[in-house]
Amino acid sequence: MSDLARLFRTTRIAQVPRQLGELGADRSATFPTHQVIESPPSSFARRDFGLKMRIPTKIKSKYIVVNNLDNKYGLPDFEPLGGFAFKKKKFQEFGIPVSVRNPTMTTKTSSNPLFPGHDPREGHSSVAVALGMKVQRPSSLEFATNKKYLRTLRRPFMEWLALKYPERIAQADLSNEIVEFLETREVDEAKLNKKKYQFPTLYREQLSGTAGLSYNLRGRLFQTPNGVQSARVLPGRYISARSTGSRFALGGFIGNSVTSGLHVKYLNKLADVRRPLDAEGRYAREFTIPLIPKAAHFNLVKKRFDFEVEPVKDQDTSKKGGFSTVKRFSPRSPIGGPDKSQLVLSSLLGLLETVGKK
């Protein structure tokens, strides 16, 4: 065994990302709060997750989350929770790309569409950014060096402020004025410990990935027994109607759609979620809806994840209610031949036929 292989075999987890909440209190959070650790099959047989000790054999899940690597009893604090790991796998089955939305990012200056470029001339909203000191946690020596140099800028700044904005001298917050002053003044980089581009992975303005959800590009095609297709049809659930469309649940994610009952007639039947819709007493949210995942976006400004889906439309819109036969429901036709996806949708739309016959 080589030295490198031996090193990896004996390596243990030294640290995990800081959790965003407690396991018990935030168990139902809609976003992951802990790092999920997965054990490969060879290590899981020994219940080895890279911790300081092996976990009990009664743990049957190969996914765990660690709240603390070492507690007061000298044991790791973990829970066998892998829900978000399975949600990630479900999302990857969608086969859709994930994009990042941020006004300070632009794809024109970036050769990689997965990581949009950042224009350093845009988005200067803080003194640290204007100085190029966007570092997560500077050391005490670096902080002392920067502080000593910044003190020398105090008198020139006050003179500039009294000359240009004398009415703002008494203001408590002068952040905008300081940024404007620094943009008009050439900062001595030799005296200021600037690390703006030394560690690019520390800055979301320079590098913003997709959280590992998907690295697919636009225009991806899928090879299926029915030919090459550009979209997948997956079973989902109807949630509720909105003023701008409808909401659906797909693979553990809530998706929004601009499609309403005006476009897809059977959505009118599902709009009433408070009473059963068939003789068996099934409600609207119990029916399986054929959905096509369209796109996903990370909105860094609003700090949310936007997921767009589209319900499969009825090709025969002349019939009242939109319910005719299952063969009239189909997704986008395959590129490599005739549309044979009716067989795939028959199992998904069988439940919806009972609603149309009511």
Task: Write a structural description.
This protein is α+β, with helices and mostly antiparallel strands. It folds into three domains: 3-81, no CATH class; 124-202, no CATH class; 222-357, no CATH class. 23% of the residues lie in helices and 18% in strands. The protein is built from nine helices and 13 strands. It has helices at residues 3-10, 41-44, 83-94, 127-131, 140-151, 154-164, 175-184, 266-270, 342-357; strands at 36-38, 63-68, 77-79, 98-101, 105-106, 117-118, 222-224, 227-229, 234-242, 245-250, 253-257, 288-299, 304-311. The strands form four sheets. Strands 4, 9, 10, 11, 12 and 13 form a six-stranded mixed sheet that branches. The chain has a three-stranded antiparallel sheet with strand order 1-2-3, with no helix packed on it. Mean pLDDT is 70; it is low at 106-111, 118-124, 193-207 and 316-348.
